[in-house]
Write a structure and sequence with these properties.
alpha+beta, single chain, about 270 residues, 9 strands, Urate Oxidase, binds guanosine-5'-triphosphate
Length: about 270
């Protein structure tokens, strides 16, 4: 009877009330860890080390937990909350948005994930030609009894195989690799600084624009700097351990092998307990 009353829901004057099916009771006794909306495309603002801020478009996921006795969550409220912050969705709003999600959805935990392209101006190593390069970044935040935030970046690099270089009379196989880094930190960390740290771990950084003199330079630099996936994640670990403000990290390297159909892969995760 109680449930039927609750399920009566909102109404429009003169019309039959809309039943609130989500509020009805579920009897399977199974709570849900994450339920919500996925893949919303939405404008956000990201702090930019050189230009103060940068506007971009994120793919956003928003989830909350759902107690066992409710049939469903209220999907429309996630988007309503997002719309409240419209032009102002940025890193410093994540905890506020999560608190609103918990409040409006009566949840004990809330998750907010954003994946977005971030652009950095790079300078070619010899010609000095400038161009914008896109990096895929992620913000992943959770609010339960405490706030947790993880910054992630996918950094493309060139890797040149040390084994191939040793064995071959000419050249060495080399390929584009993706290094994926995720960090928890105590003091503000620029995306640019994290990218610079990871880019140094491959055989060479990659660029959007290279003239012929640059091409010669990056080809030779990679040859002089061969790297296995193991070298890449170990070098990254040394560098990330030396960054005092980082409390936890995970780093992965995937080399899209040019002599195989599969990739070479390595990963390291460390908590610094600071
Ligand atoms: N919970 C849930 N809702 C879904 C799903 N797929 C679509 N929806 C729809 O999400 C819409 C919005 O639901 P609510 O947020 O409860 O909408 P509402 O009752 O108008 O909003 P409130 O008054 O704030 O509760 C409904 O039309 C649902 O049918 C699903 O898989 N689960």
């Amino acid at each position: 009877m109680e449930d039927t009353k609750q399920a009566a829901g909102a109404s429009v004057p003169g019309k039959k009330p809309f039943p609130d099916v989500q509020l009805s009771r579920d009897t399977r006794n199974i709570p849900i860890g994450k339920v919500g909306v996925k893949d919303i495309s939405y404008p956000i603002v990201v702090m930019d080390k050189n230009r103060s801020f940068q506007s971009t478009v994120a793919r956003i996921n928003m989830y909350v937990d759902l107690p066992h006795h409710f049939k469903g969550t209220h999907m429309s409220r996630f988007v309503e909350i997002l719309n409240t912050y419209r032009e102002k969705i940025a890193l410093d709003k994540m905890e506020t948005i999560l608190a609103k999600m918990k409040e409006k959805l009566g949840a004990s935990s809330a998750h907010l994930e954003m994946e977005f392209p971030y652009f950095i101006e790079k300078t070619a190593p010899v010609s000095g030609a400038k161009s914008l390069m896109e990096y895929t970044c992620t913000f992943s935040a959770t609010l339960s009894d405490h706030f947790d935030f993880v910054l992630g970046v996918k950094v493309p690099v060139t890797s040149l195989c040390p084994c191939s270089r040793e064995l071959s009379a000419y050249g060495a196989h080399n390929q584009r690799s993706i290094m994926t880094v995720q960090v928890r930190y105590n003091e503000f960390l620029w995306i640019e600084d994290l990218i610079e740290c990871i880019e140094a771990c491959g055989s060479s950084p990659v660029y959007s624009l290279l003239k012929r003199e640059d091409e010669k330079f990056v080809t030779e630099r990679a040859y002089e700097n061969p790297r296995f996936v193991e070298d890449m994640v170990r070098d990254a670990t040394v560098r990330l351990l030396a960054m005092d403000n980082i409390s936890w990290f995970s780093v992965e390297a995937e080399n899209f092998e040019s002599i195989h159909k599969h990739s070479a892969y390595a990963a390291i995760e460390r908590s610094k307990n600071i």
